[in-house]
From TrEMBL, chain A:
UniProt keyword Cytoplasm present: no
Keyword Coiled coil: no
InterPro entries: AAA+_ATPase, ABC_AA/LPS_Transport, ABC_transporter-like_ATP-bd, ABC_transptr_urea_ATP-bd_UrtD, BCA_ABC_TP_C, P-loop_NTPase
GO cellular component: plasma membrane
NCBIfam families: urea_trans_UrtD
ABC transporter domain segment(s): 9-248
PROSITE patterns: ABC_TRANSPORTER_2
Pfam families: ABC_tran (PF00005), BCA_ABC_TP_C (PF12399)
Gene Ontology molecular function terms on file: ATP binding; ATP hydrolysis activity
Recorded superkingdom: Bacteria
SMART domains per record: AAA (SM00382)
Lineage of the species this protein comes from: Bacteria, Pseudomonadati, Pseudomonadota, Alphaproteobacteria, Hyphomicrobiales
Protein name: Urea transport system ATP-binding protein
TrEMBL record, chain B:
Name recorded for this polypeptide: Urea transport system permease protein
Natural source organism: Gellertiella hungarica
Renumbered residue ranges of the record's region Disordered: 352-376
Transmembrane segments: 6-26, 38-57, 115-136, 143-161, 192-211, 232-259, 265-284, 291-308, 320-345
PANTHER family assigned: HIGH-AFFINITY BRANCHED-CHAIN AMINO ACID TRANSPORT SYSTEM PERMEASE (PTHR30482), SLR1201 PROTEIN (PTHR30482:SF4)
GO MF, one annotated term: branched-chain amino acid transmembrane transporter activity
Recorded topology in the membrane: Multi-pass membrane protein
Claim: Membrane is one of the keywords in the record: yes
Basic and acidic residues bias: start-end ranges: 358-368
Localization annotation: Cell membrane
InterPro entries referenced in this protein's UniProt entry, alphabetically: ABC_transp_permease, ABC_transptr_urea_perm_UrtC, LivM-like
Length: 254, 376
């Protein structure tokens, strides 16, 4: 189903080992432009590590990462981000001492230079766009609230909004619904379905209900390798996947 | 412009005006010299507030760049003096005593006024840029970065003491000519020198305010909160930190130059651990996340320190009193005096309108943009 779409990201034989422990093992993985891909797998399968490799937080020991036809795995983190990759971390990380609006202004990083930003002050041309983003994640009434005073769910959404302010071609989401209430999770699923098509997303998620709500293609990782790939129904009937999840109570409880 | 920003400008302007008007009231040249010295310390506090308060870089060696600026000015003024024993063509006195036969190459450019004045700011900035590039490029942060700044200062101090024939060694550089610029003579004990320092302080304060209010200033605060997060938005964090480190050093260098004019000498003690740690105390007391708080903290602490140490009643206990005050303030007001005042002001209007003030906020949004630098 990704055949007629342009390939955005490809990992080829990507391998990383931490002091002998191979977290990601000769992984071949590719995502087409505009796709919303879910990445699932049992604990320790290497999902978060894979996201770390794509955004530069960890470095591959061998193999290559191609983004928009460019091998990016040698770039430093900020340069990888500038090629159009945004990362939402598992533990929500926002700037707690700054207000919601100030947070969003940081996210807006099209012009990352020190000198350029020395002559830029708040209330610029981006304000309207950032207010729309705040509205999208339901933080429109909290613009001048210090981020430290937001609830956990709001903090998660703020970080998602920051990534949207950055406006990268590829968004990496690491457990975006972690710690959210059922209602908040539903709203997040709705948000992701709205992002579909405008951005390419790779979402690591444990909540299978959420995955079913948003996914078109699901990739399953196990022991650092790609185990299976397909629709939600194809995945849950795959014997290899069933075996991998054995003992953890099946895929629904992963 | 938001109401908060206007208020901030008014406060900063009013404080600077008060400082500039002091010579109208005070006629005592000795007092003016003393106050000018306090203002120089205020400038140092602004420098540290930028790097520590905004970017989270604790510089325990702020006095290094202060000292470099101070020596630049001292070298310049030393070459303007006429040596007593050898006449106007002769070398500075301490070089003669050390059997130096010709002017060392590092002294030669300081015959130029333009070079000397620029060097006093740019050399410390360049020095800090190189050091910052090494520290931040190597991802050294927190206490380790602080230790490096401290160690570098001790090394610089030792080099100055050791290279006596070029630096005057332990005695420093004394017996300087009077600084004169654009036809004005700046006698250390005069209103003109006080105005020079006060004007420099005003310019520095507003420059630092502009930087802290810019998006670069906002990004620096974000780096203080979550460095990793900033990096993955595509900002070159090391470059941002190096920038603020160098800017802070440039301000400290300017303060050093002024200090030499006010004190009429330069000494290796200017690059000392006691001064560096004092700057940290002033800034902590005043409020490190407020430029004006840090500045007033320095003026207040050094002022009280001066008054206590000069009064007979506290001659033996003043260091104890200062230490006790410092501990109390740090324990009770983690954001310093400025933070405590800010919290008090914020509570005042809310006491009247209750929570309704906050709920109506979004309606005002179009004209009052949520502003930068909320830490003020």
């Amino acid at each position: 189903m990704t055949g007629n779409r342009e390939q955005l990201l490809a990992l080829r034989q990507a391998t990383v080992s931490f002091q002998g422990f191979v977290a990601v093992d000769r992984l071949d993985f590719s995502v087409a432009a505009g796709e919303l891909r879910c990445l699932i797998g049992p604990n320790g399968a290497g999902k978060s590590t894979t996201l770390d490799l794509i955004c530069g937080k960890s470095r591959i020991t061998s193999g290559e990462i191609i983004f928009r036809g460019e091998p990016i795995h040698t770039y430093r983190e900020f340069r990888m981000a500038r090629t159009g990759i945004g990362r939402k971390f598992q533990v929500p990380s926002v700037f707690r001492e700054l207000t919601v609006m100030e947070n969003l202004e940081i996210g807006c990083s099209r012009e990352p230079g020190v000198w350029h930003n020395l002559f830029r002050f708040s209330g610029g041309a981006d304000t309207e766009r950032l207010e729309r983003l705040a509205l999208l994640v339901g933080l429109q009434d909290e613009l001048s609230t210090q981020a430290a005073h937001l609830s956990h769910g709001q903090t998660q959404w703020l970080e998602i909004a920051l990534i949207l302010a950055q406006d990268p071609a590829l968004i990496l989401m690491d457990e975006p619904t972690a710690g959210m209430t059922a209602h908040e999770t539903n709203m997040t699923a709705e948000l992701f379905n709205r992002l579909r098509g405008q951005h390419t997303l790779i979402v690591v998620e444990h909540d299978m209900g959420f995955v079913r709500d948003i996914a078109e293609t699901i990739s399953v990782m196990h022991q650092g390798r790609l185990l299976a790939q397909g629709t939600a129904d194809e995945i849950s009937e795959d014997p290899g996947v069933r075996e991998a999840y054995l003992g953890s109570g099946g895929i629904g409880h992963a | 412009m938001s109401g908060k920003l206007t208020r901030q400008f008014l406060i900063y302007g009013a404080v600077c005006l008060c400082i500039l008007l002091v010579p109208v009231v005070v006629d005592d040249a000795f007092l003016l010299n003393k106050y000018a010295r306090y203002l120089v310390f205020g400038m140092l506090a602004i420098a540290l507030s930028l790097s520590w308060g905004y970017a989270g870089i604790l510089n325990l060696g702020q006095a290094t760049t202060f000292g470099i600026g101070s020596y630049c000015m001292a070298m310049f003024l030393k070459l303007k003096t006429v040596p007593v024993h050898t006449g106007s063509e002769g070398l500075p006195d301490f070089m003669v005593w050390n059997n130096v036969t010709e002017l060392p190459w590092i002294w030669v450019p300081f015959q130029s006024t333009t070079f000397s004045l620029l060097a006093g700011i740019l050399l410390p900035a360049l020095f800090a840029a190189l050091l910052g590039w090494f520290i931040f490029g190597g991802r050294i942060a927190g206490v380790y970065a602080a230790i490096i700044t401290l160690a570098v200062m001790v090394v610089a101090n030792l080099i100055i003491i050791d290279q006596q024939s070029y630096t005057g060694g332990f005695n420093g550089i004394t017996d300087l000519a009077e600084f004169s610029f654009l036809g004005i003579d700046f006698d250390a004990y005069s209103a003109s020198t006080y105005y020079l320092v006060a004007a420099s302080l005003t310019v520095t304060l507003f420059l630092a305010l502009a930087v802290s209010r810019s998006k670069t200033g906002l990004i620096l605060q974000a780096v203080r909160d979550q460095e990793e997060r900033v990096r993955f938005f595509g900002y070159d964090v090391a470059l941002y930190k190096t920038f603020v480190f160098a800017l802070s050093a440039g301000i400290a260098g300017l303060a050093g130059m002024l200090y030499t004019i006010v004190m009429e000498f330069a000494s290796p003690t200017f690059l000392g651990v006691p001064l560096s740690l004092s700057i940290v105390i002033w800034v902590a007391v005043g409020g490190r996340q407020s430029l004006i708080g840090a500045m007033l903290g320095a003026i207040l602490v050094t002022g009280v320190q001066g008054a206590l140490s000069e009064s007979e009643a506290f001659l033996e206990t003043w260091t104890l009193i200062m230490g006790g005050l410092f501990v109390l303030i740090v324990l009770l007001m983690p954001k310093g005096l400025a933070g405590a005042i800010e919290a008090l002001v914020r509570r005042l209007p809310q006491a009247g309108n209750g929570r309704s003030a906050r709920h109506t906020e979004p309606d005002h949004r179009p004209e009052t943009h949520p502003n930068l630098g909320g830490t003020q």
